[in-house]
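Narrative of activities, Objective 1.

The group set out to show that a structural description can be obtained from nothing but a protein's sequence at a throughput compatible with the screening campaign. Below is one input-output pair from the validation batch, recorded exactly as produced.
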Amino acid sequence: MNYLWSKNIEKSFLANVYLGIFKWDMVKAFPEQSASEKEIGDKFCERIDQILNENVKKEDIEDTGMLPARYLKLITEEGFTRLQLPKEYDGHELSHYNTFRILQTAIRNCFPAGFTLATHNAFGAGSILSALPEGYLKDYISEELRNGGFSGWADTEPTGAANRLVSTTATLCEDGEHYIINGRKVYIANGSIADILIVSTTVTKEDGTDEGCLFIVDTKNQGFSVDKVHDLMGLRGFPIAALNFNNVKVHKNKMVSMKEGHWRDTFLLEPISALGRMFSLTSASLAVSKKCLTWMKDFCNRKKINGISLGEYEEIQRKISQTAAEIFAMESVIKWGIINIDFENLADRWWELFSTKNITTLFANHIADRTIAVFGAEGYEKAQSKKEIGYSAIELEQVFRDIRGLRISGGVDFQIDNRSTQLWLEAFYYNSDFDIDVVKNSFGVAEEIVKEAQNLSSLNKEHLIKVNDEVVKLGNHIKYLVKSFDKEELFAKQRIMILTNKIVREIYLISCCLSRTNAANKELANDYNMLTETYCIDSLQKIQSYWHQLDCELQQENKNPFNILGNRILDGDLDTIVLENI
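Output recorded for this entry:
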């Protein structure tokens, strides 16, 4: 697996960043959707908006916790559950970016209804079709989806989502033709409405070794049951459920075939999973962020404090501009990640897609929180309560609850930062198949890079030079870490792993903003430059803060007061100080 990822280095901007190489030539060719393809996507966006407007009332979903049956029926009839399925199976064969646009539109209209559709297209059985060989299983899944089936991915268990081997087992029957699946899954998106599920299991082979295997399970099979629909803090109406598998019999031809000993090691499944997070978590994050900016803009234009429009206050203007710049940055990494990318070259963008989940979900949470702060002049209460006293009944409180879960789904944010750095180090610095010395650190001459960025403002040209310098500094930092600590010791320093990846994220964001601005036409260049300037100023300040924190961590060595204090609190040593009543 590591060998395969290291082979993709020449096609991955972020992989090079971790090696201290700023490949402006790679990132500067910013992609844009063609007019003809945009027209196709526009029609689907208009139609899903119409379906939601005519068949879904957000207030009813919030009250009942249920999605309207007519909505689910319509989206299957019109193929919104088959956005990327081949046309031979009544699919629409849409591009990744058009699929993203449609799902974002649906979520922006109604979060739980749109998120259900996004989850099906992102993590349903259809998502793995490109990783399957031609044959029975691929045809079976396609036919189920053609017939209007909903699906999901059943992996998470009560013991957690990150365990390499799950407790759900699949045991080969004596007939050699079937497997018996036993186990329990929790927090399975679309679990209560799914017709078929991808189910992760542990299979014990004849030699006694365990493998992580996937099966496609028909929910009509005897022994399958929905234990409960989870009542989440947010996302009311989203059909996420706990599932039981009690001696569920599945034919062996419904096992997902793979050469590797574990499904997570299958080369294309990780990029497919990262793309799925784009379709669901990232599309939701962008949708919510844009709604929040609209709400803030409208509120600041109509609200007056001491006779002065709220939008005239300096700090309010800063919050509005920060939000707009962050949305521009989010869109930039999204577009660079999936426009002109198909399943054939999806692995080339794995590093970038993997990073985008944290980028966008964290932004969306900060933006929702910022919106609540701006709306402080109009109270901290639910939409209906505001409506009763004559205020605008926007669903800000509901969105705030909904969006928080996205930082957990697909991996808790701090753990994704931690694991990201570990994965990159394993792929390149701790990989015997990869010769690190072969890679020449052609950092690029800052003056030459600037010559190729004629559309950038003078300030953004300075930002381009600075991000080049930060990449060089990052490469030297990582080389120092690898030289100073062995792998086990370094990976145990989780805070250093997390801070390192935060720097990488900001470098990626700045690079995509600069690239998008430099590639813009004259009509857009001025506005793009302003948005990019705003984002880069904030981002470069964050990077300096992360470097300072890293320096502090490295100076602490093994006497880190956070760790010492944490251990004492967990051991109960400080209960009388921090937990007793005053």
